[in-house]
Amino acid sequence: QVQLVESGGGLVQPGGSLRLSCAASGSIFRLNAMGWYRQAPGKQRELVATITNGGSTNYADSVKGRFTISRDNAKNTVYLQMNSLKPEDTAVYYCKVSGGTMSSIPWAYWGQGTQVTVSS
């Protein structure tokens, strides 16, 4: 089993910044891609950003240039630095972590979600 603990959400004014963290713990043999997704009320969950274990990143067009994803492999933690936040960034943000067991069986887990609200 793998546990994910997210932190860093909250209320921020437009133009402000927040940093989300997601720490993975438990039976981790190998971590692969880590990423952030978000779901606004009445909308489907969408990809925000992903990062491979080699450091390659991918971003949704709506956040390019404003958000930065990074990871600390020693701490099994992924971060999302969010700058120049807009009201349309308001959503519940979820981290997703994928990996493999010693027998090369793939797995993926979702975090519990953290609320980000951008409002004046």
Q: How large is the radius of gyration?
A: 14 Å
Strand content: over 45%
* Fraction of residues in H or I helices: under 10%
Q: Estimate the global geometry from the Cα principal axes.
A: elongated
Question: Which runs of at least 5 residues are low in confidence (pLDDT < 50)?
Answer: none
Number of strands: 11
Q: Tell me the distance between the termini.
A: 40 Å
Largest sheet entry: 7 strands, mixed
Number of helices: 0
Secondary-structure element order, as H and E?
EEEEEEEEEEE
The computed structural class is mainly beta
Average of per-residue pLDDT values: 96
Describe this entry's structure for a reader.
- The chain is mostly beta strands and 120 residues long.
- The protein has no helices and eleven strands.
- The protein has strands at residues 2-7, 10-12, 18-26, 30-39, 46-51, 57-59, 67-72, 77-82, 91-100, 106-110, 114-118.
- Strands 2, 4, 5, 6, 9, 10 and 11 form a seven-stranded mixed β-sheet that branches. Strands 1-3-8-7 form a four-stranded antiparallel β-sheet, with no helix packed on it.
- A hairpin with a 4-residue loop joins strand 7 (67-72) and strand 8.
Please outline the helices and strands.
Layout: E1 2-7, E2 10-12, E3 18-26, E4 30-39, E5 46-51, E6 57-59, E7 67-72, E8 77-82, E9 91-100, E10 106-110, E11 114-118
Parallel strand pairs: 2-11
Antiparallel strand pairs: 1-3, 3-8, 4-5, 4-9, 5-6, 7-8, 9-10, 9-11
